[in-house]
Amino acid sequence: MQPKSGRRGGSSMLLLVLLATSCLLGSAKPSRGRPRTVRSVLLASDLAGRTEPEECKLSGHKDLHLLSPATACCYGKIVKNTSCCMDQQIAPGVTRKTLQRKGMHWNCTEENCWDTVQGPRGRDSFWLPEGATCSTPRTLYTHGGSWMYGSPDTDSYAQLGSRLAKVTGTVVMLTDYPLVPAGNYSSILQWAIDALQWLSLNGPFEGCDEEHGAKRVPLFVGGDSSGGGTTMSLVLTLAKRPQLLGQKLAGAFFFSPWTNLMCNTPEYYSNAFSKIQGSGKFQDDSKLTMYTGDILFQEVTPENADAFNGNAVDYLGGDFELQTDPIASPFFAQPADFAGSLPPLYFAVGASESILGDSVRVAQHAAQGGCDVILEVYHGMWHVFPMYSEGCGLGEPLWAGAYAINQTGLFVRHIHEQGRLPYKLKVEGPNGGPPESSILAKFWQPSVSKVPFFRYLYDPNVRHFSKVGELLPNRDATYSYKDIMKDLAKQSPWIVLPSLTGAAVTIFVMGFCLGGLTEFGGARSTSGTARAPRPIYWGSRSWSLRRSSGA
Fold first, then answer.
1. Per-residue pLDDT at 290
2. Domain named Alpha/beta hydrolase fold-3: which ranges (predicted)?
3. What confidence score (pLDDT) does residue 330 get?
4. Distance from the CA of 12 to the CA of which of 212, 279, 315, 532 falls in 20 to 30 A?
5. What angle, rounded to 10 degrees, do the helices at 481-490 and 5-33 form?
6. Residue 175 has what pLDDT?
7. Within a 10 A sphere around the Cβ of 48, how many other Cβ atoms?
8. Torsion angle, CA of 351/352/358/359, rounded to 10 degrees?
9. DSSP assigned state of 68
10. What is the tens place of the pLDDT at every residue in 352-379?
11. pLDDT computed for residue 353 by the predictor
12. Phi and psi at residue 153, in whole multiples of 5°?
């Protein structure tokens, strides 16, 4: 009996369909789960002509309203690489100068310094706004980096310094202070005092000291993270010892200052980094994954707090008592420590930071002690977010970062031009009575105490939700076979070849076995009634089984 070609063709067609399906599934699967390459910080010259990064393409989830595209882009990239994505462009219209002040130098070696910039250090950088003269107000800015890393020209501090010079209209001086362990709390604070004294007497050009003589120009100070902590220590030191400078500071501003060297504020717990993994999927068929909390410091709470604490002790030279000293650790300064000749203060801090409380408590105590204070908390923002104002490479600004820098410019310019804060806050008790007649009475000192001008800011550009986590291209109905093949072409061969080869071999063996079992089973079921020889097909060969007649 000849074989039935229809059954054989049906098995072959089934095999082809299963093989084609496995190829499509094999091409799509690596695209959702592929590991993302860590991106290094790009130079400004490298950004020209670049298109939108793949991981920052929008996913089109228009049914949710949580984050702006730039914020979502930064979340997705920083979670993968906490060293990435800081600003790359120098602000237009500003110029840079450097200066080695006499006696202000140190050496960074493998024995006394962990920074990447080794060798002679201590040279200052100056950023001059357009039209700067000897009469232009001046700002001393202290960079962050845990007191262990960074310089005026690395970690995007050149970019930040240029932006501050442009928006504030001041000459911005960044010092290259000795990093821990070459330096410590005492030597770094003294370095800042010496720099401010020099800046008060010398301008950006030679002869400024002779031109002005006893006339002093307005002086501002600023800093971020650990540099913000040193700046606050400087402000408090000058309040105790005003003779060190000979003039009152015009103002001070802070980006995410680290002021609590005990590292025990509640936000170390409540703002701990966490990954939210749902059972469902996004509309593009990717896993429902989101991130909350401090995306820069991703350790669990005890490890994160312990790391901060150990860093702080190193900075203090091993002196544990200084962890609660009101000058070294300003978080523990009381309202009375802020009384006297302190300047107006401006704080910009992210709502998701582990050290959010380091700004909030200091701002409250400073205002209670009589300072004019502006405190702005930015929703969803991470540590020192103004240094990501370009949007992490998305091509559109990070609104919160750009706005905080502009607010700093408004703060400085308004004080310089108007002699006061840009906002005025009036506090009254019940029925227009004095504040001490209200709930504020417990801490209110008449004619002295104030409250911070506080704002909790949301990004006004949030129009649709861009998911954070695995930021991938759309997988909606318009995602065609061509799109799948384009994604496949971008994959590493170490992902593609095993996927395709493994799927193809598996389906082939399954089809091969299924076809053989089908044929063999059919022969067994008809062997009792059929008298004619019946072939069994096994691969490309056949054998005829003849039933014996008993002869």
1. 76
2. 140-386
3. 98
4. 532
5. 60
6. 97
7. 6
8. -20
9. -
10. 999 999 999 999 999 999 999 999 999 9
11. 96
12. -120, 5
Residue 500 is predicted with a pLDDT of: 63
172 neighbors 127 (Cβ within 8 angstroms): yes
Q: What is the pLDDT of residue 394?
A: 86
Is-contact 36 55, C-beta < 8 A?
yes
Question: pTM, whole model, 2 decimals?
Answer: 0.74
Residue 345 phi/psi, 5-degree rounding, is -125, 140
pLDDT score of 338: 93
Q: List alpha helices for 34-156, DSSP H.
A: 69-80
**Residue 20: what residue type?**
A
How far apart CA 528 and CA 541 sit, in angstroms, is 24
Please tell me the predicted confidence (pLDDT) of residue 23.
42
Q: Considering just the CA atoms, what is the radius of gyration of the chain in Å?
A: 33
Token pair belonging to 513: 């076995």
Strand partners, 95: 128
Measured between alpha carbons, how far is 404 from 426 in angstroms, rounded to an integer?
24
Residues of the chain with pLDDT under 50: 1-53, 58-65, 469-477, 530-551
Q: In the 8-state DSSP scheme, what is residue 420? A: S
Residue type, 316: L
Mapping DSSP onto H, E and C, the string for 350-362 reads: ECCCCCHHHHHHH
Cα 542 to Cα 66, 334, 546: the distances in Å are 67, 96, 13
Structure confidence at residue 520 (pLDDT): 64
Cα separation, 490 vs 94, whole angstroms: 41
Q: Which contacts of 209-213 are long-range, i.e. CB under 8 A and separated by 24 or more positions?
A: 211/134, 212/134, 212/135
* Tokens 């409540």 sit on residue: 270
Look up residue 86 and give its amino acid.
Answer: M
Structure tokens at 167: 């928006």
pLDDT of residue 431: 73
CA geometry: angle 222, 228, 233, nearest 5 deg:
95
Burial readout 275-310 (b: 16 or more C-beta within 10 A, e: otherwise): eeeeeeebebebeebbbebbbbbbeebeebbeebbe
For the chain, give the longest Cα–Cα distance.
Answer: 134
Question: What crossing angle do the helices spanning 69-80 and 399-418 adopt, rounded to 10°?
Answer: 110
Measure Cα distances from 148 to 27, 135, 323 in Å.
Answer: 46, 34, 17
Burial 11-25 (b: 16+ CB within 10 A, else e): beeebeebbeebbee
3-class state of residue 108 by DSSP: strand
Say how far apart CA 333 and CA 2 lie, in whole Å: 99
Q: Can you tell me the distance from the alpha carbon of 509 to that of 487, in angstroms, rounded to the nearest whole number?
A: 28
Hey, what are 217's tokens? 């120009």
Report the candidate in 279, 382, 286, 356 with the shortest Cα–Cα distance to residue 67.
Answer: 382
Identify which of 258, 240, 427 has the alpha carbon closest to the alpha carbon of residue 355.
258
The pLDDT of residue 157: 97
Distance of CA 376 to the CA centre of its chain: 18
